[in-house]
Amino acid sequence: MKDIFGQALYDSFKGVKGNKLWIHNKYGPKEEMPLDVYFRAADEMPDLELLAIEKCYGKVLDIGAGAGSHALILQQNGLAVTALDVSGLAVSIMKERGVVNAVEGDIYNYLPEKYDTLLLMMNGIGLTGTIQQFRLFLQHANQLLNQGGQLLFDSSDVAYLYDHNIPAGHNYYGEIAYQYVYKGQKTDWFKWLYIDKNLLIVTANAEGWTVEILLEDDMDQYLARLTRTT
């Protein structure tokens, strides 16, 4: 897949104007993907993200770190943080912004050391794509964590997209198909996962994790902390 998102993010960082990043989906019209949210300061972040940052401890792996806004705050808080992203352009941005340890890589192939906190913000857990891949991610996350470590991420229930009239089918309704379009370039269609908290709890428990919902808002978005039960 072309690094279309990374290019759009890099252009935004460099002040290049006149181009929009569009995201196509299978449930409605295309939407413009705002890029300024990836460059927010702490006072611009919602309570959910600030709480997640507050709950981080020890060595932190910020997965899908994007432009590095969360990693920068964690650094300022004195934590040792590694900011990981599959986009080389995103990693370049992070380094220019002052992230000390920004690494290009795929989380599924990443196992250089162990961490105390794995952090995925802005529905970063969506990168798992499907419930089955989410299970595989939890198995891999277990290998990445020190004893007593934690996995922090936010997600939401997207049943509202269908007016709570969930379409029949074999796939979970939160496995959403997307496609990025930027400067006339398109990515392949890819899956992004939004997992409701009830299914999260059932799935995580089956994989040996305990789930704690730290915060939930009136838009069915929540922050979860997962720890190992075994």
Structure description:
The chain is of the alpha/beta class and 230 residues long. Helices cover 27% and strands 29% of the residues. The chain is built from 6 helices and 12 strands. It has helices at 4-13, 47-55, 69-76, 88-97, 131-144, 197-206, and strands at 22-25, 31-32, 60-63, 81-85, 102-104, 115-120, 145-156, 175-182, 185-186, 190-193, 209-216, 221-228. The strands form 2 sheets. It has a 7-stranded mixed beta sheet, with helices on both faces. Strands 1, 2, 8, 9 and 10 form a 5-stranded antiparallel beta sheet that branches. Strand 11 (209-216) and strand 12 (221-228) form a beta hairpin. Helix 1 packs parallel to helix 4. The chain is globular and about 50 Å long. The model has no long low-confidence stretch (mean pLDDT 95).
| H/E topology pattern | HEEHEHEHEEHEEEEHEE
Q: Which consecutive residue ranges, at least 5 long each, have pLDDT under 50?
A: none
Give the count of helical stretches: 6
Structural class: alpha/beta
Strand portion:
25-35%
Query: Please, what is the average pLDDT?
Result: 95
Helix content: 25-40%
* Major β-sheet strand ordering: 5-4-3-6-7-12-11
- Measured on Cα atoms, how large is the radius of gyration? 17 Å
What characterizes the major β-sheet? 7 strands, mixed
Q: How many individual β-strands?
A: 12
Shape label: globular
> How far is the N terminus from the C terminus?
37 Å
